[in-house]
Amino acid sequence: MKLKELITSARTCRRFKGEKRLSSETLAELVDHARLSASARNMQVIRFVTVAEASTCEALNGLVVMGGALTPEQRATDKQHPGGFIVIAGPEKMDDFATMDVGIAAQSINLAACEAGLACCMIGAVKKEEAAALLGLPEGMQVKLVLALGEADEKRRIVERRSDGKLTYYRDENDEHCVPKISLEEAVILKK
After folding, report:
1. SUPFAM superfamilies of this UniProt entry (predicted)?
2. pTM
3. With 127 labelled, which of 43, 86, 143, 192 sits at a CA distance of 20 to 30 A?
4. Where does residue 96 rank: exposed (0-12), middle (13-18), buried (19+ CB within 10 A)?
C-alpha cells in the first residue's frame, strides 16, 4: 500500500470488534514503530504503556470518551470496545518540541496499525489522573494521549466538507463514519 493510501485508510475508529483481543506482543510491535520514528531534538522523552489485559482495558475504557460529536446511540456498544490500548506518557512539564513527539508517535502507531489490518482512535478526552493511577505510572510521568486499538467494526471514509461548511465528523444514513476534509486548494494558502 502506498503511503497516501495508507494515510487515507487510517481513519479514526470508535467501534471495534470487542471479542478480538490484542496481545502484548502486537501492542509492543506497534510501539516499536513509534520508538523508531523522529523525535524533536532526538530527546526521546515519551514512554509507552501497553494494555492488553481485558480487565485493565475495560477499566481504561471507562476513563475515556470516544466520539464526543456523536450521539450516545451512535457510540460503541459494550461489545464494541477496543481490543487493547497504548498510552503515551511523558514528563509533567514538556516543551513544545517534546509535545511534537506525542503526535509523531501517535501517527506512527496509527499507520502501523492500519498496515496490520487494525484500527486506532487517538483519545485526548481521558481522565488523565485516574488513568495514571490505574496504570501505575511512575512519579513525574503523566498520560499525554491514549490510543485505542483493535479490529474495526465500522466503515470510515473521507468526504468533502459538509454543505453547511462544518467539518464535524458524523454518521451517514448507512451508519458509516464520515470525516469531512478541506480541499487541497484550501489547505495550501500560499504558493511562492
Report:
1. FMN-dependent nitroreductase-like
2. 0.94
3. 43
4. exposed
